[in-house]
Amino acid sequence: MTNGNFNPGSFIVESKHAIKSGNDVSKHFSQARDLIRRSVDDIVDKHANSGKLVPELAFAKVRDNKVSNKELQEVRQHGCVVIRNLFAEQMAKDWNNELGEYLDNNDYYERAKQNAGLDDYFGDLKDAKPQIFGVYWSRPQVMARQAESMAVAKRFLNSLWDVTAPAGPEFNADFDYSYADRTRRRAPGDTTLGLSAHMDAGSFERWVDPAFQKIYENIFNGQLNQYDPWRAAYRTQTREYSSPAVSSMFRTFQGWTALTEQGPGDGTLELIPIANAISYVLLRSLQDDVPDDELCLAKPGRALGVDAHWHPDLMPGLLPIQTVEPGDSVWWHPDVVHAVGNEHHGKEYASVIYIGASPACAKNKAYSLRQAEHFTSGKSAPDFAAEDYEVDFKGRATIEDLTELGKKQMALL
Fold first, then answer.
1. Residue 1 is assigned to a structural domain of this protein
2. Domain total for the chain?
3. Would 189 be classed as within a structural domain?
4. Measured between alpha carbons, how far is 364 from 234 in angstroms, rounded to an integer?
């Protein structure tokens, strides 16, 4: 969807009317709420007993195709996974140091002050934007994206989806394009820069876009047991409202790779690990206490917020992930609610490189071709605010740094 001169409220009113027609959305929501309450209770109990929130897999087990059916089911149920030792610990630490030098040597902090306010994707969320840096082409970021181990992990993650669709396979699970995203380096002791609970990959579009309506058809119709969050049909055909930091790619998983140790209390990732929690969020906005032209916290061009006022049954399930080490990676389904802790009480930077899984399909190829032009010139990735810091940065990765796989992933072959 392009910005244009349109009234989102009218789209919302029309879509709500169409969805509600012939549907008892109050009854459907009651059913969804009961399911979510049970899931949240299970999560809270498990977390209290074990301290672990997210299913874990050793990368060696993924690489050697030794993940059990029980482990696969657990990942699908929770919509998230930690893959341990995706990279060697020392390599991740070296990347962290190199990335810090890249920012310092190119005077990133002074340049960023001049562009404050360009990216307001999280502007309506109650907490501030975390320490996310608008660089995309540092060597550590590029090396991590094109690594063979990353490609193996992405193939595994993509394979969790059912790609069957009316017009043929929705995407190619065996090949993944690079999606250039940013990096987070949260300073120790920071108590101001959190990020409240939200979903990416679509906000108000989830109710008004025809492809999203097909994806969530069983939810809107109250056939909750028939909804499969891992069915890929129509997922690559959604049209998002264009704005800085709204992804133009379809990602089977959002994710990041840890460059430092981080966990509870370190101002890092929090999740509601329920793959089908979207059923509660979608149906909540259709209830009578929500104005006809509103969808709770969903607004064009912004993250889809989730909070205790509109979603009280969900929020107790928002908990910090367990501690991860340098070289570990964390992945979550595009419909999983996530946040960043408000306070970093640790003594070291909490640093990550954002890398998601974006399999080959027409939508992702089209974006990759645009992205390749930005890579060669050093401009910010197309989906993000045009800060363009790296055009003249020293030490920026170039095409000479790409392997053959990296060039294919960047649509440069």
1. no
2. 1
3. yes
4. 14
- Structural tokens at position 286: 């259709």
Which residues, 6+ apart, have CB-to-CB distance to 196 below 8 Å? Answer: 125, 126, 127, 305, 307, 339
Res 122: pLDDT: 53
Whether residue 195 lies inside any domain: the answer is yes
Residue 129 DSSP SS3: coil
Residue 276: give the domain boundaries. Answer: 8-409
Closest CA to 154 of 92, 20, 225, 62: 62
Q: What CATH number is associated with residue 138?
A: 2.60.120.330
Q: Is 167 left (phi over 0), alpha (psi -120 to 50) or beta?
A: alpha
CB atoms closer than 10 angstroms to residue 89: 14
Q: How many CB atoms lie within 10 A of CB 172?
A: 13
Q: Is the pTM of this model over 0.70?
A: yes
Residues contacting residue 59 through CB under 8 Å, at least 6 positions apart: 83, 84, 85, 86, 149, 152, 153
Please list the residues that pair with 132 across neighbouring strands: 184
Q: Render pLDDT for 192-235 as a digit per residue (tens, 0 to 9).
A: 667 899 999 889 999 999 999 999 999 999 999 999 999 999 99
Residue 347 lies in a domain: yes
Cα diameter, the chain: 62
